Amino acid sequence: MGLDRRAFLGLVAGGTVGAMFTPIPWKLIDDASIWTQNWPWIPRVPKGQVDYVATTSKLCPAGEGLKIMRVAGNPILAGGNASHPLSCGGVSALARSEVYMLYSPARIKSPMKRNGKTFAPITWEQALVEMAEKLGAAKGAVASISGDNTGTINEVLTALTAKLGSAGSFMMPSEATTAAKAMKLMGVQGQAGYDFENADMVLVLGADIFETWGTSSRNRKAFGANRPAGAKPANTYVYVGPTRNNTAAVCDQWVPAAAADLGVVALGIAWHLLKAGATSNAPGFDTFKAVVNGGFGPEDVKRATGIAPETLATIAKALASAKAPLVVTGSPFGQGLGAAPVIAGMSLNMLLGRINKPGGVSMLPELPSVVPGALTRAAMLDGDLPAFLKGVESGKTPAPKALLIYDANPAYGLPEAATMAKALEKIPFKVSFSSFMDETAALCDLVLPNSLPLERYDDVATPYGSGFCVYSLVRPIQKPICDTKTTGDVLLGLARKLSIDLKFDNFQQVIKEKVASLTKVSGGFVAKDVMPWQVAAGKPAPALVGGDLWKALEAGYAWTMVGQAAQPAMGFAAEVLAKAVKAGKPATATVLAPYAQLRTGTPVTGMPCQDLTMVPDTELKGDTTFIRVNSETAKALSLKKGQSVKLSGAGVDCQAKVHIFESVMPGMVAAPLGFGHTAFDYYSQGKGANYLSLAAVAEEPGSGLSMWIAPEVKIA
Amino acid sequence: MEEKRSNSAGGVGGMALFALIGFVGALVVGWGIFPKMLYSQKTQPIRFSHTVHSQLGIECEQCHHLGPDGRFAGLPSTESCAECHGEETGDTSANGKEIDKFVKDYVKTGRQVPWLVYQYQPDNVFFSHAAHKGFECTKCHLDVAKTDTPPPYYENRLSGYSKDTMKMWECERCHASMGTSNACFVCHK
Amino acid sequence: MSGQKKEFPITWGMVIDIDKCTGCGACMASCQTENNVEPQREASNKLRATSWMLVYELTNDKAFPNHDIAYLPRPCQQCGNPPCVSVCPVIATDKNENGGIVSQVYPRCIGCRYCVAACPYHVRYFGWYDPIWPEGMDKTLSPMTSVRPRGVVEKCTFCHHRWTQAKDAARVAGKDPENLDDGAYVTSCVQNCPSGALAFGDIKNPKHKVHELVKSPYAFRLLERLGTETQVYYISRREWVRKLGDNYLKSE
């Protein structure tokens, strides 16, 4: 009996029926369907024990305390730290990105040396030898730029620069540089601190306090805390500026005014206050009064700014009748403002008697410095980087032989980008300590990547805008992912190589010493159960238990201190106002009104990768960014919605498309900053245009400060 | 014609016989060989002896505990193990060698041991140990507490999951019998 | 459509104070990293980009200087009577659990996109691309949410995983997991909003802040007249903002 056709069919049939009584078909179908759920190219989520550690955001200028969630020791998520006074649980889109940024494609993976037009990786030892040799040869003409407003690293950087023979140690221009200049002209020391938490009426002149100005996360928490949902707000916010920006969008009132006219508006309000009898015994009051009454009456202001007299009269009245009014002045895009508008705004605080009062302004003292030979923050802020670089470009200032660039991207983040790039070209040896391949690093001879904040020790000391002195710790919670080093350690190692004594062997020692020095500052305390604004409002400050300070900082609490430095009375600096603030005729040219947002990062971070989703398609579509004009301006300039245009200014052209947006003043062109990178990664590169490059730098009369608050542009 | 018919008749009988052979063969393959083929056998990276540790008086909860936030700690990290096994012993016994292997490969390199977990669920499943703490662990887990050598781990060649990973119908059946909700988001994420 | 509102003893609800939202996008950033939404290179193509939480810009459509704007963050509205659930042919999405969160089970979804079409709030996103993280960045994925392959629909889940964790924490602390304290369970966007514009809690629990907030005369829901009975409430003292919450005739 052979296996004939029928037998074979029988075998198959039997086998098939039999298989139905086994797991084969059912299990295979089930497993195959599971197999399709787990393609190998779809990443699996990590498994492991979950814990939380505290640190502080260093990438975000608002300096929020962070709680980092880790899985099996790896950082996963950065959230706000509810017990940190600059976060209160909130976190900006930028600070939230700190974890993702560890793996940003723009990260520099090892030290690199320029080799013609490209870079070649080198070892840290080679880099140090190279740098020591070049800096040794450049002695007497070494300059440095720092973009870090709050770190003790500046002490190491400036002390080293000084020992090498300084040609200048500069801070990147920001709100802090402008305010420091204004305070100096008004004859006081310290950093202006604004107590939003205790203020009940806040007049915001230009400053984008809820986005880019100072401690923006904390500012928003303070704003929101007194505004219970659906109920009558317990505070009033009035915004004066060229666009209804993110700050103005939530303020009770928006008063449209050109950024160039902020000083005029302030003095216009001063006129009403003076008329109502406001007085002051501060130095220069009589001159101030004469200046205000001489040219800032309601009609003068109306002619210059277009603001109706009753608008300012109402604001002045509201300020005068508020329990705790506060005036804060700044640039709508975080830089480029002259000192005079800040002085004008501050004089309103003086007329209202708001200096060193709860809900007012305090001159916060600098924290003690620990590195011998370091510049103070005030001295660093006194430098004028755009003026210096312009001088270098034109040949008026001798170019330094070497330049150290820390946490700064001057080739992108300064106005008049073309001029600044030319100036940088004139400097023969440049070192960048950037963590990311930014526009400036791409120009440098040596790139020595700094470890990211989640990989290094660092600190945040009293960011500009904070109403109280505050110090919090940045600590490594992850081993460096790439071959990077903490720049503080690199600089100290370099000093050793050059036989320069900076007292410390590594940067952690510097931070430890800084923390130790805080225990000696009287009035300091750790904000735990009592927050600094409660102390400002009269609650007794808890005592500081010295030995535990480091531990408390590691646990994510902040050291804080309330109150201002003892000093001479603040003066009105009326002579500066007389020269710099003019209620002239309104500008007839088209004026650029840039605006910046934390979601597009800073010049140092580039566009945080997951933040690109947050940018609306009325700001960036494809690779083109949009400018915003209102329909009146569009008509006057014959612009249509979606039209492609070319903007020109300061010898630079930028492409844009037109978006019609009515909350922009007539004659103004609002333009987003943070786009148009030529370096970084595919999340930043080639996305739109850098409109800051259109801004020409001018010198402010009276203060001599570089300013670029209202750049004129041509649209074609 | 006749021959043909008889052939045909014998063919029917043969067909039935072969059908039976096919049926039985399929059962043998399906129940005997197929399961062995479907799974690959793997051994744990380190031969961890639960008996040795429990004889030392270490409670199960010391390593497998619920955290204060309600999260189940799962398996201890290399760091926790290194609290006792921080240095190589040089001991040449089987256990000593295994300890030294652990110290050399994981403690010194700072890596986590890639333990093969018999019950790991897919990424889209959330299992709450806190909600099930009234049950005996062995209701779902292999009883490894008394093993000197961890049992072999069977990995499904097709789906990649452990043979012992509980299937959704098992979860649902128990939930239904306990009167607990079987809504999607009770378990899925 | 079944046309029936589903009631549960717990009703998780979000209350968003539009008057406090500055439009900064921190909620979107919080959401994306919490829920493993990959960083999208071509994110300016809004037809293809995924954002479970999305901030809309509202305008009163007037010319300068009477123009006004507001920002409206939009998570999944967790409808009491969800239009997406009734159209799903494979029960990949359902509203069947206490708390009232509309579930979405990715491995079950067949990607037909009926729900995307049915949702009046555009909260549902189809994965057009496989999720790709830059090299190494997948180490930062959150273990609390699974990663979706392309071809399935996803949406905001009110960070449901945070609820399961809050319940576990309550169990370990010996508290009732079905009666959580106010704030024990909040979503990632609510927790991280720097303005404090978002509130979250059990609308039916008088001990929770949102219980009172939803009764505010300024509170409204989106497209209320569709009868979707959403669990997300908005608050604005500006009438024009409230009017944008639904389609009104000129005469209304």
What's the gist of this structure?
Chain C: It comes from Solidesulfovibrio magneticus str. Maddingley MBC34. The complex is a heterotrimer of chains A (716), B (189) and C (252). By secondary structure, chain A is an alpha/beta fold.
Q: How would you characterize this protein structure?
A:
The complex is a heterotrimer of chains A (716), B (189) and C (252). With 716 residues, chain A is α/β, with parallel strands linked by helices. Chain A is 30% helix and 19% strand. Chain A has five domains: 5-35; 50-101, Single Sheet (N-terminal domain of TfIIb), CATH 2.20.25; 112-175 and 366-561, Rossmann fold, CATH 3.40.50.740; 196-359, Dimethylsulfoxide Reductase, domain 2 (3-Layer(aba) Sandwich); 586-715, Barwin-like endoglucanases. In chain A, the strands form eight sheets. Chain A has a seven-stranded mixed β-sheet. Chain A is globular. Chain A starts with a helix and ends with a strand. Among the domains of chain B are: 1-42; 67-74 and 115-189, no CATH class. Helices cover 43% and strands 4% of the residues of chain B. Chain B has helices at 2-38, 50-55, 60-63, 78-82, 94-107, 168-178, 184-187; strands spanning 39-42, 153-156. The longest helix of chain B has 37 residues, at 2-38. Chain C has helices spanning 26-34, 83-87, 114-118, 160-172, 188-192, 209-213, 239-243; strands spanning 12-17, 54-59, 69-74, 93-94, 103-104, 125-126, 153-154, 198-202, 219-220, 232-235. In chain C, strands 8-1-10-9 form a four-stranded mixed β-sheet. Chain C has a two-stranded antiparallel ribbon with strand order 2-3. The longest helix of chain C has 13 residues, at 160-172. Chain C is globular. In chain C, 55% of the residues are buried. At the A-C interface, strand 3, helix 8 and strand 22 of A face helix 1, strand 2, strand 3 and helix 5 of C.
Features:
heterotrimer; A: 716 residues; alpha/beta; N-terminal domain of TfIIb; Rossmann fold; 5 domains; 7-stranded mixed beta sheet; 5-stranded mixed beta sheet; 29 strands; 19% strand; globular; B: 189 residues; mainly alpha; two-stranded antiparallel sheet; 7 helices; extended; disordered N terminus
